[in-house]
Amino acid sequence: MAYSLFVDLDRCIGCYTCEVACKQEHDLPVGPRWIRVTRDGPREIPGGLQLDFYPKMCKQCENPECAEACPEKAISKRSDGSVVIDLEACTGCKACVEGCPFGLMDFNQKTEKASKCDLCAGRLEEGLEPSCVAFCPGKALVFQKEMPENRRLMKLV
Amino acid sequence: MRTRMDAIKTACCFCKPFCGLLVSVENGKIVKVEPDPEDRMSQGAICPKALASKQLIYHPDRVLHPMKKDDGTWTKIGWDEALDTVAENILKFKQSYGPESILVAHGTERNLSGYAERFANTVGTPNRMEPGGAQCYWPRGIACKYTFGEMVYYLFEFDYTNTNCMLVIGMNNLIAGHQAYRSAVLDAKQRGAKLIVVDPRFTNLAARADLWLQIRPGTDDALLLSFMNVMIEEGLYDRSFIDTWTIGFPELREHVKPFTPEWAEKITWIKADLIRAAARMYATQGPSVLDLGVATDQSPNSFQTARAAAILVALSGYVDVPGGNPMYRRAAYTDPLLTHDFKLPELIPEERLKKRLGADTYKLLGGPIAAMSHVPAVWKAILEEKPYPIKAMLAFWTNPLISYANTNKVYRALKKLEFILSVDFFLTPTARHADIFLPAATFLERDGIANYYGQGLALLAMPKVIEPVGECWDDKKIFMELSKRIGMGKYWPWESVEEHIDGLLQPMGITYGQLKDMKQVLFPREYRKYEKSGFKTASGKVEIYSRELEKMGYEPLPVYREPPESPYSTPEVAQEFPLVLITGGRTSLYNHTEMRMIPWLREIQSEPVVEIHPKTARAHGIDQGDLVKIESRRGRVFLKADLTLGIDPRVISCKSRWWYPERGPEDESWLDSNSNVLTSDDPPYDPALGSYQLRALLCRIGKGD
Q1: Labelling A30: which of B24, B265, B527, B660 has CA 20 to 30 A away?
Q2: Are the Cβ atoms of B174 and A48 closer than 8 angstroms?
Q3: Residues 6+ apart with CB under 8 A from B180
Q4: Domain spanning B571-703: CATH 2.40.40.20
Q5: What would the pLDDT profile of B137-149 be if each residue is shown by its tens digit?
């Protein structure tokens, strides 16, 4: 795929801005959280404690199991790498929610359809980065083709 | 139809830094609130609160019209009737009990508290308060005034962009700091700057520290004194700055001799070696910046603690230099909303000023700088009518039942008041007890100006982007119309808010329209200004030893005071209540008592928790997520357990000031969730400011069900 999304663990402060940025961008109700921040720690390490935060979001899998699980064939992998749901075809059966091995497929109670990160397809078309990346106070999220060097990074997408 | 390209520029007002926003509006309705990439404060990033603005403005529970309460029932009324009723009551209580029987209570300073102060003076009452005051900002600001000669925002400013070493005490600038500081602190760390964090909790900032000093809550004064001891004993202070620009160093040298790291270790629970290492790092790895947060203001030794921090900065010599603590505010410009003249203090005659509650004792709180009443004295005046009764409260954007210490006492006081006005967005637990409710406009529905600091000094326009929803009004218009109705209209002589702001800007030679076009006026940064004009103290130098304070009867050099309720001060209380309680930890999702009703924020953090060390939890049979009963001498609350290694086993930390807006105005379950049920406004108080012990109190825990 064209772009990957990384988090710099030294810069993610666990502020949840990415979560609310996503909610506003996609006008999501309470329920689906396309990106969610995880707290890891404080845990004991030699010489002290360690505490990290990082978000989790749809990994836009190469061979998406959610797509295989969908009886309507409503989920597909696009040429730009993103995995998208055809909302016209989605019947809200939740097979994909069960099918995602990472628990990252959400269900939107309001629309009664499956619901997940599309990497801000609308913003990308305008030449903008995904809202979670753009508004991050710590500049912790990196949206680019190559993995940046010399940083404590975790690949999210 | 608007797109991102033609969004309106304004600034966020959920807290103080006034981050620049781009707001998209369609058909008079806000569709998106995003950060302004061209703004120096937000730099295109923002916190979650601003991004959820829409859900505040269009919240289904927001009250959109004036209301009155008759026999416990709310009725919708028109503005004329509402304002007339408030004015009649103001005049009635002035007549019957004197103007001092009316309390003006307001919330945290955004860009409106200057108006509340002006309005209190217009009403003629010397009694005005906010939950901060002696418990927030003023101890630090006034300590700077007596040390460096002027009030500087939050004990100086913080040049993280150019610093080499950061000493952060009692605050978390990744959560509560200015937006621009967040990335600046992270950048500084990534380029190798040192970070020393003094915090009882292992926060996301402490996790990045080179040295984390896990302090016993409430003992920052002892730590700061021992830092000075190390710097002076080891000769690590800036000799040339001290010799040229300070007075009182020889007295300080003698004064701090007993305050060794070994002495401080017993008090602070921080190992002496670690204290030494931190003092050396701060003194030698500079330029160093010191950042002191609200934590120390919430202690009965608030003023001397802030004085100690100010003097520490002087010892380091990083005063008004790049990478240190600059004094941007010394530019040739003063916030027009915060000038003495704007607040109209001359409307209160000298005789009545003496009636300001607590002002004779807590001179630095009740005096002309802060000009506030002492909160415990206000509750006493309401409950016991001593030395005179307070009968009415005019409450602007404040929720005392949640925000003040000792909730049960506040509740008794509120019930005794004969008249309450509440100006707010929602029927909060406090507003529910009002007689008249006036619906306020949010910051996106009113015009205004504001200052920001931190990235230099700027004056910015905060234009409204939509007309107020429903019948809500700009607070400034409420003040103007109420003043007219109490016969004081000549002090609020403007026909419109725009005309008023034009008047404020007149001395700068610009109009509001022009400021809106410019968006902001930036004032140039200048360092080492003292080299040209000295410091604005009586001596012209940094006053380490303060004769002025001595004359007022306050200690001229900083001292340590053990918190009045603590394992050492009150061992008999500690037998029953063995744990030390913190209730001040902040989150990036909420500010103070606000925003618990915003769905996008509430979904992430849905309920208040108490942080407990697993060892302590185990001893009480408490598991992760269990309901915990937390008791102090004042009362009890029930919060869910969050077990964490990031807290001392002898300390617990409650999420602060929680209530449940979704349960409706009649609900009183905040009596079970608001951490202020546990806190105290009992004496003794800080001798100069009157601050009470809001943190580091004693408590006990047990299973909640």
Answers
A1: B24
A2: no
A3: B17, B40, B41, B42, B43, B454, B455
A4: yes
A5: 999 999 999 999 9
